[in-house]
Amino acid sequence: MGSEEAVLFETDNAEGRVLYRLFAVSIFVGICLVWAYRVNNVPGSEEVAGRWIWFGMLGAELWFGFYWFITQALQWNRVYRRTFKDRLSLGYENSLPNIDIFVCTADPTVEPPLMVINTVLSVMAYEYPTEKLSVYLSDDAGSDLTFYALIEASDFAKLWIPYCKNYKVEPRSPKVYFRSASAPTSPSHAQDFSSIKKMYEDMERRIESAVNLGRIPEEISAKHRGFSQWDSYFAKQDHGSIVQILIDGRDIDAKDVEGCPMPTLVYLAREKRPNYFHNFKAGVMNALIRVSSKISNGPIILNVDCDMFSNNSYALRDAVCFFMDEKKGHEIAFVQFPQNFENVTKNDMYSASLRLITEVEFHGLDGYGGPLYIGTGCFHRRETLCGKKFTEYKDEPKRVNKLLRDESKHDLEERLKTLASVTYEENTQWGNEMGLKYGSPVEDVITGLAIQCRGWKSIYFNPTRKAFLGIVPTTLVDTLVQHKRWSEGDFQIFLSKYCPLWFGHGKISLGLQLGYCCYCFWPVNSLPVIYYSMIPSLCLLKGISLFPQISSPWFLSFAYVIFASCAQSFVEFIFSGGTVLGWWNDQRIWLYKRISSYLFAFIDTILKLLGLFKLEFIISSKVSDEDVSKRYEKEIMEFGATSPMFTVLSTLALLNLFCFVGLVKKLVLDTSSLVVFETLVLQILMCGVLVLINLPLYQGLFLRSDKGKMPGPVAAKSVTFAFLICILFTLLY
Ligand SMILES: O=c1ccn([C@@H]2O[C@H](COP(=O)(O)OP(=O)(O)O[C@H]3O[C@H](CO)[C@@H](O)[C@H](O)[C@H]3O)[C@@H](O)[C@H]2O)c(=O)[nH]1
Ligand SMILES: [Mn+2]
Q1: What residues have CB less than 8 Å from 502, skipping those under 6 apart?
Q2: Nearby residues of 19 by Cβ (< 8 Å), 6 or more positions away
């Protein structure tokens, strides 16, 4: 084969890089001028309070400037990848690697079995030789309902896979397909369509009725020997390992309705005992790595969360293009696809699509050695997950691991159970040098970092047809809690021995180290943002000016930095497919995350360092009741929970409202005070923007009567706090 054909992927630099860099330099100059102004205009020593406020502003601005600087690592060197799947099929169709797909679920109430099996069916139906695919469902709840749904799915797959392949169906999650597919045009397809749709709906009904019943009806459990495993089951957190090979790809009888081989399908519930810590998803992944190594041992592992169905049946081939590329493939440890979502509304009220991260920042990281591993939609080389260093791998002769299995399925299942037992990992390197790392709520990020520090590269691939679609939380509190977990995890990495700066020093590029820091520092951002959104507004009450007056040339530097960075985020947002209102919502959530999720993450991390708190993992809900869904569809913000995070948000919003009203009152009563305008313009503007951005919150506090409004106690508390802070400030200053 010519060298041209051997190239399976290409990398392009972002357009307009030079222009962007010039623009960034201009902002940097602006930031330096802001600092210079702050340092040169410290109030005299007679104004003690004024000085401290000023130093606070200086501190915040130093941080903002510094943080802006490191975020350039996410912008400076953006790259985009392209794959050549046709070359892959031409040159390598017979040597495509086996792929093991891990799907994780943990709770049948927040992750309904029906959703889980739709994801499973979508990944069983990839455009890839089926005999090379093995799908493993890990069920951390060990729920017989999920198991039952999987049995149903294993039968339905025999029809579904050939149907998808015959009619080139997309997406291959049956639920989403039947919901969105346009009516088939050819009569034969129409017939197949309606018959398979009926089969699906029947299956759906059976599963739903078991779920509604809350247990498996006897006539069903008698039919499948697998249910006997639940005889010794006590509770979610107290049961032995359950391993069931539902479809064994090697079994000559495992054929679909057209006689083609089926992918292997395995159910796993690892052992859980109350006095053993189970390490959340990292523990699951490690059990899966071990169990799969004895069944299919695919050299490539794809892992997805149970809500992340496959939306692009060629994505496996895309990923394989990277690993099999003759020149650069051998140094790639993992290929990360973005997390995209199915249920985001038009203006994305909770900024849940993570638009700038997926469309801009990860391309930036990719330019410096590769993106973070973000837990789902990621393809790993099995060996790198198991701790292999790049240098060891490079020098080693490549051999194909052929698994020889002659024991019976039953014996194998029994042997596999010990691999998923609570004691298996005692005195081993699992969770440390092997597998995913333990001890972090973001097992993915820390594991990815460790892999990159062993000399490997990673790839970010963001195809136009999205590869995976998941579910975003549909309430404000869920969104904030999820961000708390992420930011807390990243911050803990920074404070641990895996700090990207020290641990990564000399192992990954400086750009990548700084890139990691951008995420690790999320919680730290909370402090300056809270300061900046409180103090200047409070100062309005006393007419204290904190910014240069409009006629001063220093004013320009502030105005430029603020305006230019807003404009940049606006342009990036719109170019990444967002709407104008979506951008405005994104700004609101930007603020809310900083003053609540990140603040609580910061505090909890400190408490955890002091040993006052232990690790937890709150699973994001993938279902919401009808009432909540309706409001979500209409883009009405959902409060409706008494969370301390809401008290902080409301207090800050009200505080700004009081300050703004106080100012207006002063201007109306005393027109001579209009001169203050000259000196307070920026402060008034900031306070005004804060009031505007909080409009939905004021509505939630005072104007709404539905169930999603802000609960009364939160409203009462925050009015009191905001009022007290304003009074205290005016009295004490
Ligand atoms: O003890 C646990 C906890 C979670 N999960 C599974 O882990 C996945 C992620 O949980 P989810 O609540 O959906 O968290 P997200 O915040 O949406 O997840 C993102 O962030 C996590 C780290 O915080 C990563 O593990 C995920 O892969 C990544 O998608 C789900 O499939 C769960 O079923 C388990 O299997 N066992
Ligand atoms: Mn999730």
Answers
A1: none
A2: none
Residues in contact with ligand 1 by the CB-under-6-Å rule are 104-106, 111, 140, 280-281, 284, 305-306, 375-376, 441-442, 444, 482, 485-486, 489, 617, 619-620
Please indicate, yes or no, whether residues 448 and 557 belong to a single structural domain of this protein: no
Q: Are residues 424 and 476 in the same domain?
A: yes
Q: How do strand 133-139 and strand 264-269 relate by DSSP bridges?
A: parallel
Nearest to 320 by CA among 87, 1, 4: 87
In one letter, which amino acid is 385? Answer: L
Look at residue 404 in the predicted model and tell me its pLDDT.
Answer: 61
Does 528 map to a domain?
yes
**Residue 20 domain flag:** no
Query: Within this chain, do residues 471 and 399 fall inside the same structural domain, yes or no?
Result: yes
Strand partners, 133: 99
| Residue 194 and residue 251 in one domain | yes
- Looking at the 3D structure of the chain, how many domains does it have? 2
CA separation for the pair 323, 384 (Å, rounded): 12
My answer on whether 551 and 408 are in the same domain is no
Which residues in the chain show pLDDT less than 70?
Answer: 1-5, 397-405, 673-676
Which phi-psi region, left, alpha or beta, contains residue 336 (left: φ > 0; alpha: ψ -120 to 50)?
beta
Q: How far apart are CA 210 and CA 206, in angstroms?
A: 6
- Pairing of the two strands 300-305 and 457-460: unpaired
Tell me the C-alpha distance between 626 and 682, whole Å. Answer: 44
Ligand 2 mean position, distance from CA 473 (Å): 8
Neighbouring residues of 519: CB distance < 8 A, sequence distance ≥ 6: 372, 445, 486, 487, 490
Residue that is written with structure tokens 């342009």 in the block: 571
At residue 679, the pLDDT reads 84
Phi, psi of 100 (to 5 degrees): -105, 130
The closest residue, in CA terms, to atom 16 on ligand 1 is 482
Separation of CA 277 and ligand 2 centre (Å): 22
Domain end position, chosen among 495, 520, 550? 495
Q: Is residue 258 part of a domain?
A: yes
For the entire predicted model, the pTM comes to 0.95
Of the three residues 444, 467, 495, the one that is the final residue of a domain is 495
The CATH number covering residue 361 comes to 3.90.550.10
Q: Are residues 570 and 441 in the same domain?
A: no
Structure-token match 């992420």, residue found: 486
d(CA 708, CA 641) in angstroms, rounded, equals 8
Q: What angle do CA 349, 351, 354 make, to 5 degrees?
A: 155
Q: Of all helices (H) and strands (E), which one includes residue 322?
A: helix 315-324
| Confidence check on the interface: ipTM exceeds 0.90, yes or no | yes
401 falls within a domain? yes
Burial class from Cβ neighbours inside 10 Å (0-12, 13-18, 19+) for residue 213 reads: exposed
Q: Are residues 489 and 523 in the same domain?
A: no
How many whole angstroms separate alpha carbon 108 and alpha carbon 115? Answer: 10
Ligand positioned closest to the Cα atom of 377: 1
Q: CA–CA distance from 199 to each of 162, 203, 448, 458 (Å)?
A: 14, 6, 41, 41
Is the same domain home to 484 and 627?
no
- Per DSSP, the residues of 500-563 read TTTTTTTTS-HHHHHHHHHHHTHHHHHHHHHHHHHHHHHHHHHT---S--TTSHHHHHHHHHHH
Contact, 635 vs 349, CB < 8 A?
yes
Find the domain containing 183 and state its range. 91-495
Output the 3-class SS for 331-389. HEEEEECCCEECCCCCCCCCCCCCHHHHHHHHHHHHHCCCCCCCCCCEEEEHHHHCCCC
* Among protein residues, the one whose CA lies closest to atom 4 of ligand 1: 281
Distance CA 700, CA 718 (A): 13
User: Is 444 a catalytic site residue?
Assistant: yes
Contact at 8 Å (CB) between 491 and 525? Answer: no
- Can you tell me the distance from the alpha carbon of 323 to that of 335, in angstroms, rounded to the nearest whole number? 8
